[in-house]
Amino acid sequence: MSHPNPHIDKVSILGSETIILGFHIFDYVLRDTLSNFKASTYVVITDTNLEKLYLDRFTKTFHKISQEIAAATGAALPRLLTYVISPGEESKSRAVKGEIEDYFLSQGCTRDTLVFAMGGGVIGDLVGFVAATFMRGIPFVQVPTTLLAMVDSSIGGKTAIDTPEAKNSIGAFWQPKRIFIDLAVLETLPEREFVNGMAEVIKTAAIWNHDDFVLLENGAEAIRDAVLKPVRNVEFQGATLETRTTAQQLLLQVVMASVAVKSYVVTHDERETGMRGLLNFGHSIGHAIEGLVTPKLLHGECVAIGMIKEAEIARHCGFLSQVAVGRLTRCIQAYGLPVTMEEKFVKNYIGNQYCSVDELMRILRVDKKNVGSQKRIVMLSAIGKTLEQKPSNISDDLIRKCLAASTVVHPRPVNLPPVTLSPPGSKSISNRALVLAALGQGTCRLTGLLHSDDTQVMLTALAKLGAATFEWENNGETLVVHGNGGKMHIPDSELYLGNAGTAARFLTTVSVLVPPSADPAQKTILTGNARMKQRPIAPLVDALTANGSVLKYAEAQGCLPLEVTPFSHGLAGGEIQLAASISSQYVSSILLCAPYATKEPVTLVLTGGQVISQPYIDMTIAMMKSFGVTVEVLPNNTYRIPQGSYINPETYLVEADASSATYPLAIAAITGTTCTVPNIGSASLQGDAGFAVNVLRPMGCTVVQTETSTTVTGPPIGTLKALPHIDMETMTDAFLTASVLAAVTQPTTPGGNNVTKISGIANQRVKECNRIAAMMHELGKFGVTTSEFDDGIIVHGHDIASLTPPKEGVHCYDDHRVAMSFSVLANVVPGGTIIREKKCVEKTWPMWWDDLESKLGGRTSDVDLGPPQEHHDYEVKSGSSGKKTAGSWANGDATIVVIGMRGAGKTSMGRYAARTLKRPFEDVDQYFERTLSTTIPEFIKEHGWPAFREQEAKVLAELLEKHPKSHIISCGGGIVETASSREAFKKYIAQGGIVLHLVRNINEIEAYLNKDTTRPMYGESMRDVWARREAWYRECCNFEFVVAGQQLKGIEAEDAKEWALVESNLGRFLRVITQSGSRGQKRVSRAHVAAKPTFFLSLTFPDISPALPHLSKLTLGSDAIELRVDLLKSPSALISFRDHVAQQVSLLRRHSELPILYTVRSVSQGGQWPDNDVEGMVTLLKDGLQWGVEYLDVEIGLPRSKIDEVLAQKGNTLIVASWHDCRGTVAWSSEAMEAQYKLAASISPDVIKLIGTAKSMKDNFECSEFAERHTTKADDLPLISMNMGAQGQLSRVLNNYLTPVTHKLLPVKAAPGQLDAREILLARNVIGLLPAKQFYLFGTPIKQSLSPLMHNTSFQSLGLPYNYGLHETATVDESVVAKMRAPEFGGASVTIPHKIEIMSKLDEITEEAKAIGAVNTVIPVLGDNKETILVGDNTDWLGIKHQIQRHLSTTSTVQPEQMKGLVIGAGGTSRAALYALHRLGVQEISIFNRTLVKAQSVADSFKDLFTVKVIGSSELLKSSESSSDFDLIVSTVPGTIESEAMFDESIFGQVGKKGVAVELAYTPRFTRFLKLAGQAGWATVEGGEVLIEQGGWQAQKWVGRRWDLESVQVQMDLVQAGRV
Ligand SMILES: NC(=O)c1ccc[n+]([C@@H]2O[C@H](COP(=O)([O-])OP(=O)(O)OC[C@H]3O[C@@H](n4cnc5c(N)ncnc54)[C@H](O)[C@@H]3O)[C@@H](O)[C@H]2O)c1
Ligand SMILES: [Zn+2]
Q: Residue 1492 burial (CB < 10 Å; 0-12/13-18/19+)?
């Protein structure tokens, strides 16, 4: 089909018709531009999104039309250039502007160039600015493609780019030659972008034109459909008027209206001096919100919320009616835009981020248009009208009040004159009146109608049914109903009733009255939201069905949606039976419609025993009478309703909601003043209307009531009387009001009872919340005593003067009645009462706070308590939702099932796991072979692969059943091929089990397996097998360990070391995931005094591999390593990002013992992870947990549901709840920061991390004070708190726990202002936070000791101002004690001969030192009362144990438990050696010494702990015959002793045995013992190595961290070299 000639509309701006609108108008765009604006070069600039969609069409059309024109005019063909940039706000930058200009220059563009800006506002602003300055200005044309650009940014000539400091900070006014609005392109716009633009459309109508607003109000569905669900019957639908759909026409109409307004305003105020400011409606507050949440929320979304807030301000000032606010709210919502910061939509995008009033005000303040303590804000005065022709000045106080989520109600001034107030209309009466007037004949003016969602839903539905037409009069005070006398038609679309219960019930019978239309398939459909779809309707539907109507449940039985089949007879009539014990609304529904029965009059018989809520039935009957129909009430719950039609009275005053009326009346009662409610009185049928007479009067008030009004005068303040017992069954909702009054009563008689007992209110336990519990809890906060009983509550009167308002405020449980009743009490409570969640009153009285102040004379002010709290009184919530706890999800002692590819190391790693966790090991394959008495190859040969897989699955199930706890089970590689096995794994995980996937690089596996020929092959490459199974492994596991065995060389001895490393990494990983040991993982302790402060190193590499050799240098002095996952980049396209991250984790673990802190930092939190990729971040975080990292950073700005998702899998990983204020908008002293802290704490993390940005020194002190406040109590969480920025460096110095640090060698700092650990320690030393310390070696002779060298080297490299010196004494004398008790004492090593004697001078001895009977380390520890306690410890055994562990042969499957150990010598160190073997787990330990008695006495000293066998030389040497006797031998005899006679090589057993030999002597370096061991092929440990190892442990105990082993080693080697 050729392109039809499009129908276009034009709008004029600045005096000419340059705005052109239509559908599919590219042809027109180019013809118009090319003929009217001649240029030699045309450039289209667009973004990559639009390039894909439209660029091709645009350029083709360009060429077609330019050729046509050239052919017709003979002019030269112009050239067309295209330039495409990336989409997004980031492109609105100097850089991109420069690129475009360079491109223009490179293409030889001159002034004879015209630019098309084809795109959203970003393109329009940027390209417009380029055009404005290129060659001092070239012509440009706007082709806006987003709704926002069409109605807003393309019009008006404002062009701009952003700078890092501020949005739109550089720009120019430059008018486009044309603005072409092709509405057809909106069809490809993402929904959220379309909705975003609607905010501007609604805004424009709201300030300018009531009719436009009505179009928007009523057309929401159609307008959304025109864009989001377009009809496409023909190509170029809508281009011509013939093909344009109604929805398209409507869309055009509203867009054009908006465009016209903006054009008019621009025309009359081009440079924004006055009127143009009106377009800022919603933008003052909207911008402030945007400033805090961008880019998470879009501009229009923020403006939508801003409009409501600004409208509320106008309402508060009395400029705007609640009807208008309500209409604006519903209209905004109808397009899918948010209206509050609290709603789900917003939370979804911004997570838990809280925008405090302070922050919002701060941004409002910097708005250039504002002055002093007033802000310029557009005040609506009605829909379509503003108060002034420009923004109005509004005081800060007022704005704060309207922004705050909580309010403070102050005591009401005394002796106020009488007041009169009409509370909102009764909902029940409003809904009934609407139905009656709509079904009635003639016009009725309803006043006092409640404006709520419910009534709005009812109105809309009645209008859709054609039951009546409605108009508002009196600025929304009066609703004029033109009733249709019961005539209706089937609505065009379904009736959506939200969760409005009354509407749903009443309208069900109303729908039955609707006659059929010409199209027999048409039906009336009633539907609602998810909650509505669960609410019962069956009794009503049953009754109507029995009467011959046809109603079908479209989804769940018994609930909406309902499909009502129309009949010409409508409601048949006759006897209708209805079960009325569930809801009186069913009864009212039938009663209201009964007069319209067609065949015979209705006789309604209520069945099922007790009728509930009879008063409501009476109310319906009474109201029907007012509309001319008299119901005959017969005995036995039977009603006869005559046929006929309602006759509308001219006016109908809707009675006030009686429960609402209790609040103003109660204020009069409690404050001793007078209040009149003019729209409720003695004639009222509402139960709560009895409140004044039955409750207030007996309490001592004067009550004057007419049929329709009530006046209450309270007794003098403080003299209300207690009511010994009051039954409130007929007015249950009013019990909350009564309770607050009862809280301030006096005894009835002097000295008498001062207790009010309220009964008959049991149903209040299942209202919005458990109201009885709520009242008790909240009253208790004031000091009021209460108790409850089955049927009610007991309140003890309290003296007003001594009531204490709760600091944390009254929690309202989102219950309007709780909020309003406590605001009554607050009128007399001294000091001001905070009421939280003040918005909850909107359910029944949206203007309550305004009315309290302006009509009742109350006083309120604002307060911001931070984000809403997860309330602890959850029992108060009715039908408690049961808070999900993120518990440890993998059960520590659950059996670990190991899966993975063949060759990944499942068996050897599994064995190691078994060994280190001390658990039995099972191999599925072996178990298979064992129980089926066959080999697997045989089985396969005989039965085939499928049978094998099936059998394998059975074996797995059997094993899991048999050993669900404390085992290690290793599986065959192919087990995941069977679906039933996969299911078994998943089920096991769901039960809390651990399935560990061992991952190993497929190249390594191939290399390894090619050597092995003993196993069945697949006839398929390993690579293909892996490709097939990878996803299965992933779905079947909950933990993943990457075997980082890259260094395997195929040389056995070298590889053994490599495997040992992998194993020890696995060990660490297992400790994290199983909680073995003392909660297993390496936590960075915060209790250790000496280790203060602690640090973590932030790694900022895209790939850490090249840095690994230097990792120990980099991490020197750090206590943990942070892996910044967001900065990682996969080095090659062949490695997926996830695999890259997994590998980085395993590499880090392999190269450092420090715990890993795993962080994915988002852009808005100072990192690189895109803010909008929440899913990606959550997945990565969960991966981190799978990899068993020690710490996981979780940003608290994430949506709570996402955080919960992560926490649900946290196992034993510690959680750091983090928040970064990168823009420095939150002060440490502010409530907002406290709020962030609470928010962080609310996810129950292990560490809280709050980072600010310092703008001055003061911020650092405030930060430090903040930290002090939050780290005083023993159960306070560890806190990391500091400031970014150069100004914030001091806060890094002051922070005590896990300060992030950098290192000189790192390419970039992770955050501005970061310091390295040494710098921090140095600074702490300078400012006195880190005093110098003195350490000693006690003993004699010690001149030759290497200890000072070791320790001083270590202190120096760590940057600690410590010194280690010698103190040589013959005995442990006074001088030693004096040194240890000196304030600067940091610790001591103790050597021969003082190791025993020193014990008597110390305060405490550790278990280990006691067992060994010697102290080699003294540690001063701060006691509870800050006194110094000297602790004696022993690290000799640690040195030995760890050295043995490092050298244990890994190929051996023997566990230390099965090894035999020998200690040679019986001197002091032999005891440490024996103890080390014992702690290693060795069961059979022997000692050999030339003097047997000495050996015996050493052995005896351990007899309470373990057995040591004493052997003589004959036995020792016999060991050669018994072969492989000892696996571990420690020699403790001085190296200089001639020991040839003592032993020979035979003690090392048979050739080929590989044990570990440890020498404790270190001079000479290579003793005979070591030489023999080496020759026998044993692993050898030199004395120097043990010395360094134990020294390292000593340092650990003194200063809280290991030393720089490398530099110590270098120093030692040098010294040794000099000595040997
Ligand atoms: N100059 C002014 O008076 C003025 C007024 C308001 C806003 N602005 C500026 O406008 C910018 C925002 O503009 P925006 O909301 O149009 O966002 P935008 O330009 O970023 O566009 C939004 C997204 O929609 C895509 N897109 C645009 N049209 C599309 C289509 N038809 N089909 C599919 N995808 C499409 C874009 O590629 C982009 O990813 C801001 O920079 C703001 O400062 C300027
Ligand atoms: Zn805007």
A: middle
Q: How far is the CA of 104 from the centre of ligand 1 (A)?
A: 23
**Active-site annotation holder among 331, 840, 1037, 1263:** 840
Pocket test for ligand 1, best of 52, 57, 153, 200 (most atoms within 8 A of CB): 153
Mean pLDDT computed over 955-979: 87
**Residue 1220 annotated to the active site:** yes
Contacts of 166 by beta carbon, 8 Å cutoff, 6+ apart: none
Cα–chain center distance at 340: 18
Q: Residue 363 C-alpha to ligand 2 middle, in angstroms?
A: 16
Between the alpha carbon of residue 1089 and those of residues 1152, 1174, 1326, 1428, the distances in Å are: 24, 39, 19, 11
Which position has the higher pLDDT, 3 or 317? 317
Q: How many angstroms is it from 304 CA to the middle of ligand 2?
A: 10
- Mapping DSSP to helix (H, G, I), strand (E, B) and coil, where does residue 316 land? helix
| CA nearest to 1366, candidates 1382, 1381, 1351, 1384 | 1351
Q: Find the DSSP H helices in 1564-1604.
A: 1568-1575, 1583-1599
Is there a binding annotation on residue 121?
A: yes
Strands 41-47 and 113-119, sheet pairing: parallel
Residue (of 672, 635, 680) closest to 653 by Cα position: 680
Between 1013 and 77, where is the model more confident? 77
Residue 344 is assigned to a ligand binding site: no
Q: Cβ(424)–Cβ(450) under 8 Å?
A: yes
Catalytic residue among 375, 1210, 1249, 1303: 1249
For every residue of 1251-1296, DSSP letters joined together read EEE-SSHHHHHHHHHHHHHTSSSTTPPPEEEEEESGGGHHHHHH--
pTM for the whole thing?
Answer: 0.59
What is the pLDDT, as a whole number, of residue 880? 28
- Encode pLDDT of 677-714 as tens digits: 999 999 887 889 999 999 999 999 999 999 999 999 99
Whether a cis peptide bond, with omega within 30° of 0, leads into 539 is: no
pLDDT at 876: 38
- Residue 91, marked binder: yes
**Ligand 1: residue whose CA is nearest its atom 30:** 189
Q: Could you tell me the two tokens for 116?
A: 């098309």
Task: Provide CB contacts within 8 A for 189, sequence distance 6+.
Answer: 145, 146, 147, 227
Across the chain, mean pLDDT equals 86
Is residue 389 exposed (0-12), middle (13-18) or buried (19+ Cβ within 10 Å)? Answer: exposed
Q: Is residue 840 annotated as part of the catalytic site, yes or no? A: yes
- Residues 1322 and 1328: their CA atoms lie apart, in Å, by 10
Pairing between β-strand 170-173 and β-strand 158-161 as defined by DSSP bridges: antiparallel
Given a contact cutoff of 8 angstroms between Cβ atoms, the answer to whether 376 and 369 are in contact is yes
- Return the pLDDT at 1549: 73
Where does ligand 1 bind, in terms of residues with CB under 6 Å? 47, 49-50, 53, 87-89, 92, 119-123, 125, 145-146, 148-149, 152-153, 156, 158, 168, 185, 188-189, 193, 196
Rounded CA Rg of the chain: 41
Is 1571 labeled as ligand-binding?
no
* Residue 1379 annotated in active site: no
Q: How far is CA 1160 from CA 1034, 1124, 1153, 1308, in A?
A: 21, 6, 21, 17
Cα(25)–Cα(693) distance, rounded to whole angstroms?
A: 72
Look at strands 573-579 and 562-565 and give their pairing.
Answer: unpaired
- Amino acid sitting at position 1019: G
Determine whether 1249 is an active site residue.
yes
Query: 551: which strand partners?
Result: 564
Known binding residue 1597? Answer is no
Q: What pLDDT band is residue 1306 in, cutting at 50, 70 and 90?
A: confident
pLDDT at 30: 96
Average pLDDT over residues 44-56: 95
Nearest-angstrom CA–CA distance, 1253 and 1239? 19
In whole angstroms, give the CA distance from residue 50 to residue 56: 10
